[in-house]
Amino acid sequence: MSNKIPVAVLAATGSVGQRFVQLLDNHPWFEVVALTGSDRSIGKPYGEVCHWLLPGEMPAWAREMIVRPSTPEAVQAPLALSGLPADLARDIEPAFATAGTVICSNASAYRRAADVPILLPEINAPHVHLIEAQRRLRGWSGAITTNPNCTSTGMSIALKPLQDAFGLKRVFAVSLQALSGAGYPGIASMDIIDNVIPNIGGEEDKVEWEPRKMLGTLSGDSIEMASFGISAHTNRVAVTDGHVVTLSIELGTRAKPAEVVEVLRAYQGPKEARGLPFSPNPVIVVRDEDNRPQPRLDRMTGSGMTTVVGRVRPDSLLDIRMVVLSHNTIRGAAGGSLFNAELIARMGYLGPQYTR
Amino acid sequence: MSNKIPVAVLAATGSVGQRFVQLLDNHPWFEVVALTGSDRSIGKPYGEVCHWLLPGEMPAWAREMIVRPSTPEAVQAPLALSGLPADLARDIEPAFATAGTVICSNASAYRRAADVPILLPEINAPHVHLIEAQRRLRGWSGAITTNPNCTSTGMSIALKPLQDAFGLKRVFAVSLQALSGAGYPGIASMDIIDNVIPNIGGEEDKVEWEPRKMLGTLSGDSIEMASFGISAHTNRVAVTDGHVVTLSIELGTRAKPAEVVEVLRAYQGPKEARGLPFSPNPVIVVRDEDNRPQPRLDRMTGSGMTTVVGRVRPDSLLDIRMVVLSHNTIRGAAGGSLFNAELIARMGYLGPQYTR
Amino acid sequence: MSNKIPVAVLAATGSVGQRFVQLLDNHPWFEVVALTGSDRSIGKPYGEVCHWLLPGEMPAWAREMIVRPSTPEAVQAPLALSGLPADLARDIEPAFATAGTVICSNASAYRRAADVPILLPEINAPHVHLIEAQRRLRGWSGAITTNPNCTSTGMSIALKPLQDAFGLKRVFAVSLQALSGAGYPGIASMDIIDNVIPNIGGEEDKVEWEPRKMLGTLSGDSIEMASFGISAHTNRVAVTDGHVVTLSIELGTRAKPAEVVEVLRAYQGPKEARGLPFSPNPVIVVRDEDNRPQPRLDRMTGSGMTTVVGRVRPDSLLDIRMVVLSHNTIRGAAGGSLFNAELIARMGYLGPQYTR
Amino acid sequence: MSNKIPVAVLAATGSVGQRFVQLLDNHPWFEVVALTGSDRSIGKPYGEVCHWLLPGEMPAWAREMIVRPSTPEAVQAPLALSGLPADLARDIEPAFATAGTVICSNASAYRRAADVPILLPEINAPHVHLIEAQRRLRGWSGAITTNPNCTSTGMSIALKPLQDAFGLKRVFAVSLQALSGAGYPGIASMDIIDNVIPNIGGEEDKVEWEPRKMLGTLSGDSIEMASFGISAHTNRVAVTDGHVVTLSIELGTRAKPAEVVEVLRAYQGPKEARGLPFSPNPVIVVRDEDNRPQPRLDRMTGSGMTTVVGRVRPDSLLDIRMVVLSHNTIRGAAGGSLFNAELIARMGYLGPQYTR
């Protein structure tokens, strides 16, 4: 009999849900015990209702699983990975937390709640202890944890070593985002062939706020936001996977590009985030070529979990300029939630039986 | 007999040269009397040696013209539009200026010369009078004038009304540039399908310098550079035509988005730049939708000569953010040189016979 | 007061409907008197409910028109251009025909009705007289006419001169179709970037059947189908506009490529289809280059109404191979219906007052 | 000490050469002992002169290897994988064969030589014995073997089980080919964004001839060509990797789609081609969905070595229609040569020491 940790995938037929199913195939710690979906899918085999969109085949074990409703009654598991849309997550995720399930959510619904962490373990693993505040304040036996917006992800990871070494004052961020970030069917092809869409609804707010929470400090029952400021433009381009973000950065203390490259390359992250199955290794790759990172060539670095930085150079108005690439549906979505889940299991929040 | 102004097109078989030929078809003032090309093409009909890359047919009059060398001996004309690459322009353009031809160049070779104007007539028509300094200082009977880099073009035009109304302090510019800007064959398809290239060699320098010259003031025999600063990231995306630039702007005096929109919409430019055949009309269009301008939908606004602005909104760190679109091979290259040529003809620099 | 022919556009907010509105702007014969739409749009200004997707602005006259229901009660006009989807067309179009309106429909609903013509005037203008059969058999004072599927369009036009000169036995057709043919939002971007979709639902049936009706002969109250056979594969590719079809053709009598080119270039079509505002001129362009026609370069030939043929060469198993390009939303959809409407007006089927 | 088979890669810096280097990384049988390149590269480290274009890093062992000239004097190895262009291959490959090296070539130079096999081991492994004829007739101690054109590859494999079961009479093939097939820089981006190129120079000849040799029978010192005929159209589309070919097939004896699917699925190929490191497993996958295979989703099936077939259905003029997908730079180029090399090693043509 398997002694793996039972895990449910909520909204498993959607594009994030499919990535969960793909990445959970042969996971050394986790075993999928439930896949949930909408009314249209409930009671039918996953292989029949899921319009599989990823290269490679749907794992055989998933094909025959019967899709269940997204309710704690239908799904008992100590852990659930949630690909729910924000509006559904708002009600469903607390129901699971109340029932004793720890949720690792990709949705934005609870990212701004004071006692809910937005986790990127390689930069803020200690924020996971907000789970204790949640349990105390809300009476939950489970918990809700989130991963950030896919664009916030790469830039926050790349900024962390600079924050540690030099401090951060101001960041100007402009994204060139991949299509998979919009889900499926998402962006209509007629809107993006031979084109750019210079806006992504609601994204700029998230990109200006989330990194400051993630780069903030756990203080009692909440996070003290980092004090630097961010200005963001977000754009959609004709790329399948991989978000590029250009950064112009004002540091707390001056630093030369070579020093910045050095701290980026040396960065390892908190000890508790290292050596997990989905830990990025290395956390950050810095490329020396003057035209990298590029989505098609670099997005799968470190199996899609590594953040890739390039073009570290002086900024003509501030201190440092650089370009960051992150795989938006792996590090920035499903892989991120999974990494969070591994951290949570290691830290004991799934209970002693499931501590790894 | 035609009383049109004879014009030569230098490097007419290249991608900028082809646009010149296309835009000069049925021009009300100009008549092409010579097309020049490289050794490979000289002595052969243009229609035979030019690998025509534009939608629509090569004009019939061009097809039979015999390609000549790019020398003043082979080409007599009061006016020449130059699509020469910078390295060739360095020697060839002064030879023509010495021989009495006024050059409207798309090359970067002389943009930084103190007495050579970089012209965008709708924002700096008076800079054309640097021709007098050139003639005095260099003894030329012709002249060299230039148009800016295609990315500098749109952003400089969009910044001008703000400079006039509020002053400019700092500008953070990030471009998403079209493929045609790299000429032909230019970018390899394998480098851009499902991809972004986060650098364009030499471009950032130009984008940080040229707008300050164009937005500067004519002062004696040179231009006093505008004092604001620019930081630029330049990126290549899978778009055929139309450069998008995102701008975060610190103004001299605070202004609300509505005020910025108002000055952009009211902007008409110097009187001498209005009403020419290639004058943009209007100079600037401001779109209200939250996801425009887009290259495919908006690049042909005003036949490709109008600058399109959108998403005018507060910047979270500075004053104003906005997005600018400009057609890089029309307003930003061949159409720009042609517009300059019209201004020069109107201002009398081609001599009384050719003043329009 | 205008003496133009009043025309209604049915389903004016959809992608075909928008093309109708665009192409009707400044039409010399027609004046739009009504735009219809779905429940969501009725009673609101077109400019407010229509998500305009075409390059260039919505015509000013359309912006303020109030959208009406698609019923003969709400819309009185001698002529209606229909962009209705097939399922709605099935009931709505006969209602208009009963009420006295002549419908030029882009929908497939009635293409297979014995007394309804599928019109491509440059190849089968005489089929328009089926309107008389309709009126006699169905008691309509109006009529229903259709244009074919966008892929059937170009290939049928290119086959007609060959049918006339040499006869046709068998045709193997493979399409590479543009995205706009799927409407909006149509194909999801994630399905087509770096990809091909090797099927278009229902298309192959149409492509194998419609050309045989159009190339058939009017015989009494119906069309006698042409006797040749067609085999079709239909594919979707990452192109915005312009369908490419490769053809391998078995002729009735042998012919050399040069003879085929000659009959294609000489083709003028029936006299009644010439000289109308939307008549293609020329009907067919044959290109000599070995890599044309190409959608981006050639689709706007003859303002998008001309059929472009290239690579006419021997087939290694049959007689002749060639490549055909047709603009799928202009010649193959809205422009086609409009051309049909002009033919109908000329032939007197809108009544003497509206005969042109 | 390694007991692997020493292998040289000829033209290792090109796009096929890079794939060889990538696929040879950790190969269980082969060890790269030499990389060759052009004058520009000779004497320099591969990592310095090779503009690496593949996702993922260049293998560490390759980075420091010094590039050598493509001559037998500079390169001693029992086996060489050749990515040489056809014009260079014509002289260089025989020089190696004379010197005792067995060449597995991706070039077309010798495909039509009577005693040179074009190998796709899963369909014609016995053709490898032509090496004996070569050695006897030409006095070589080495040999030249080739793999076919990338478009011939997939369709030949898919046709083989049909030839065996039903016989083949006529095949109409139309390709939609990926950009990587043109090498690097290959197709200019401006030629393919929002476009299709309806010709690939020289390709149709190859596609009509090569499959007939590969599906022919070894007979003495040459191959008796298969007697069926092929007509091909070849097109370039905006896809990075993966060639799609549509086939309309006239069989020797009638067969229903279900029977065709059955023989495709049951196909295993000659025994000697099974179980090698690069043997496709399975040889053919038949997909049931009505819109597959698709390049982005299916090209990596079987690590890029499996041929994927879909849409098996009746042809309206002949017997059977279907769609074939093959990874053009893996199965259709570098992976194919490597598979051939493995077959050759197994069959003893590298000598007893290197027989596996």
Fold and architecture overview:
The structure is a homotetramer of 356-residue chains. The first copy, chain A, has 356 residues and is α/β, with parallel strands linked by helices. The first copy, chain A, folds into two domains: 5-148 and 334-354, NAD(P)-binding Rossmann-like Domain (Rossmann fold, 3-Layer(aba) Sandwich), CATH 3.40.50; 150-327, Dihydrodipicolinate Reductase, domain 2. Helices cover 29% and strands 21% of the residues of chain A. Chain A has eleven helices and 13 strands. Chain A has helices at residues 15-24, 46-49, 60-63, 86-98, 121-124, 130-138, 150-166, 203-214, 257-266, 295-298, 330-346, and strands at residues 5-10, 30-35, 79-82, 102-105, 143-146, 168-177, 217-219, 222-224, 229-236, 243-251, 284-286, 307-314, 320-326. In chain A, the strands form three sheets. In chain A, strands 9-6-10-13-12-11 form a six-stranded mixed sheet. A five-stranded parallel sheet of chain A has the order 2-1-3-4-5, with helices on both faces. In chain A, a hairpin with a 5-residue loop joins β12 and β13 (320-326). In chain A, α1 crosses α11. The longest helix of chain A has 17 residues, at 150-166. The radius of gyration of chain A is 20 Å and the shape is globular. Chain A starts with a strand and ends in a 10-residue tail after the last helix. Chains in contact: A-B, A-C, A-D, B-C, B-D, C-D. Chains A and B meet through β6, β9, β10 and α10 of A and β6, β9, β10 and α10 of B.
